[in-house]
Write a sequence for this structure.
């Protein structure tokens, strides 16, 4: 009975969505906001990557809200898992240790590159932050004994979140709206351009990286405590 | 032609959504429910990206491309960018809850975990379970065999 109701609901949902999307003109969307943003973004925000201009310029407040959702999820994860007494397993084998040593600097460079070039090329703070989280999680897999705890991760996370809000408040102090891009726009396409956008994305990247690696470490520690 | 392609793509995205929701509702395994949630999220993200797609358009990045070249809509892409990260956070939270349930009740089956949790709560509160399949309220026409009662009392928790 419950399965039948579920299937009916799913059929109705699929029908509704197909009818709605079928009425769209695929490949030729009515993008009035998109057109306006594409025309105005280079002059207003100064970022070559228009998606970054939308994420940090036009929708900066939404990004702050999204960061707080991520923060809430990470905090709740830590709360649920708790801080168990870490019963750490011995170090991993040679292959994993050597691989981790090789991969760590490469992942750091790739992650920081993607974060810093977020306003120029595909990528940005969120994507690069995830790569940074993977980089910081590798040593824990390879050498659980000698890896420091996640106290310093909390410091990075808090400082970068505070930096994001402080940049927004600086615009407010100058008489503009919250999170308005400040500083010189620079030349379009240069590394140092787009005003405060690279700084904002750096803060986002560090925050995402610290949060996700803290969460991964907690999950891994918890799994060890269980087994 | 373009509507045919659009229909195929959208049916794929909607199919992912539907499969994910069906998995959430029909599955009894908690970990499979988390995976189904991830599939449903992927379908929703794909639908959003498709809504902003344009034929013969490039990525919305102003580097080296002539200004006349049309670009895809950047707004859905920005939304999906943030939605993916939120999805990761939500999945991590759901997984940590699943780990906790597994540690406490030693099962990933949702009904079994619920039953054990109810037993736990009843025991903590000091009340005998008001309704139970092994010991229904009221008179029984025939008493159950004794070994069934022993199993029911001993098998409730580890």
């Amino acid at each position: 009975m419950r399965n039948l109701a579920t299937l009916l609901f799913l059929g109705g949902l699929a029908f509704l969505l197909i009818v709605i999307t079928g009425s769209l003109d695929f490949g030729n969307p009515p993008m009035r906001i998109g057109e306006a943003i594409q025309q105005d973004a280079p002059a207003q925000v100064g970022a070559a990557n228009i998606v970054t201009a939308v994420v940090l310029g036009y929708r900066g407040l939404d990004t702050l809200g999204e960061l707080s959702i991520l923060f809430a999820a990470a905090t709740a994860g830590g709360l649920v898992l708790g801080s168990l007494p870490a019963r750490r397993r011995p170090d991993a084998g040679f292959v994993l240790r050597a691989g981790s040593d090789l991969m760590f600097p490469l992942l750091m460079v790739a992650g920081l590159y993607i974060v810093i070039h977020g306003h120029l090329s595909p990528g940005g703070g969120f994507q690069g932050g995830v790569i940074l989280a993977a980089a910081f999680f590798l040593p824990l897999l390879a050498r659980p004994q000698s890896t420091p705890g996640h106290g310093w991760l909390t410091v990075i996370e808090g400082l970068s979140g505070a930096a994001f809000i402080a940049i927004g408040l600086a615009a407010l102090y100058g008489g503009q709206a919250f999170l308005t891009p400040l500083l010189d726009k620079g030349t379009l396409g240069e590394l140092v351009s787009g005003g405060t956008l690279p700084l904002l994305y750096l803060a986002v990247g560090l925050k995402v990286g610290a949060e996700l690696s803290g969460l991964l470490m907690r999950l891994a520690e918890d799994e060890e405590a269980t087994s | 032609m373009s509507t045919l392609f659009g229909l195929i793509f959208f049916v794929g995205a909607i199919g992912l959504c539907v499969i994910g929701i069906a998995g959430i509702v029909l599955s009894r395994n908690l970990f499979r429910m988390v995976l189904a949630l991830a599939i449903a999220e992927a379908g929703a993200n794909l639908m959003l990206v498709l809504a902003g797609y344009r034929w013969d358009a490039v990525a919305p990045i102003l580097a080296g491309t002539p200004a006349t070249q049309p670009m895809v809509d950047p707004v859905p892409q920005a939304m999906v960018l943030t939605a993916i990260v939120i999805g990761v956070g939500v999945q991590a939270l759901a997984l940590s809850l699943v780990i906790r349930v597994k540690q406490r009740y030693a099962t990933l089956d949702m009904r079994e975990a619920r039953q054990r949790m109810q037993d736990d709560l009843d025991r903590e509160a000091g009340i005998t379970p008001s309704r139970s399949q092994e010991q229904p309220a009221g008179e029984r026409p025939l008493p159950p065999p004794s070994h069934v009662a022993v199993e029911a009392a001993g098998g409730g928790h580890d």
Notes: Chain B has a mean pLDDT of 80.
